[in-house]
Amino acid sequence: MSVQKLLDRQADAAPTVAPVASRRWRRTKTALRLLAVAIVLMASAWWLLGRPASERPARRSAEATTVVRLGTVSRGDMPVTLEGLGTVTALSTVVIKTQISGKLTEVGFKEGQSIKKGDFLAQIDPRPYQAALDQAKGQLARDEALLAAAKIDLARYEKLMTQDSIARQQVDTQRALVLQDEAIVRSDKANVESATINLNYCRIVSPNEGRVGLRLVDPGNYVQASDPNGIAIITQMQPISVIFTVPQDAIPQFIKKLRAGEALVVLAFNRSNSAQLAKGSLSTIDNQIDTTTGTVKLRASFPNEDETLFPNQFVNVKLIVDTLKGATVAPAAAVQVGAPGSYVYVANADATVSVRPVKVGPGNGDSVAVLEGLAPGDKVVVDGVDRLRDGAKIRVAEAADRTPDQTDKARGDAGPQPRQRRHSASPRSPSDAGP
Fold it and tell me: I need a labelling partner for 197 at 20 to 30 A (CA). Which of 143, 339, 420, 434 fits?
């Protein structure tokens, strides 16, 4: 009996001992893993710190050479300009409309054709107006005959009145009849003139020179003076004007020269301000300032001989108000702006750069006038300035020292080269690059 109880107690204790052993084994495994990680980290640190200095990973030296491109400071004339936004405006725009009503029988122009004053444009059916003119002329001839008869009778009555053969009242009545017939004749002449004008209106001619646009009405349609669109539109292309605005504070820079009759040059550029379209002169200034924008409107005239300017075209305008003669001119890309103001990186003879503060004047996009800080002949950095500092070492890119002709000549002397497959390398940051 006692042996059976002992076996039962061992059976009851077995389920409790197994979970405890499992938890202890998991804790042991975790500790072993942490110990292995610590050993690896310690070994790596010892390997890195224990190597000779020459075998350690190289860091980017503070004196690393930077590849740059240089520009040369020169002496030249620098225009002082005022920039504004402008719209091309034609000096004359005429909507060709009919002045009478009738059927459009003929169109005498081609779309986009350049025409002169007096050129034939369109024809309205003239038959009804020719008939009206003939009728007016007939009425005039009839009334002129009546007037002639009345004048003969008046002369006869006046002679008889001197002989006391007729009453004075009859003579006065005949004289009034003559005056009435004269008024009728004058009215008939006016009707003839009006009918002649209407007949002339059937033939439409150009009132001025310009370029005709797209045809708005086709032959065969009935047209009348109340039509809103007309037959075509003629726009004067040569010369043409540009209306642009400048700030009101800039008026004193050019108003004296304009009133003195001096021709101020105006340049028109395309919408992206990358190409010059035309060159003209300032014509006039508006008589009031727009209070909502604080600007004033100016009109410039352009010959537009090549017709590069079109009405309603958007352009960028530069008004040259003055020119600095013999100014020190530097590439605009070389001028940097920082906390101390404007400055440039000047290349030294020992292949280093120096920071030099400058005083900048007017510019024209690619170049800028330097009033103080530079002299003609100085070499300034125009590309690669973001990686420079005062005293940094530089290396001039080979392509920057060659002109396009020299580059093409060098390629020609080298002869044809075999084509090679290029592999693009992944970019790396300046901190990862070696010296």
Answer: 143
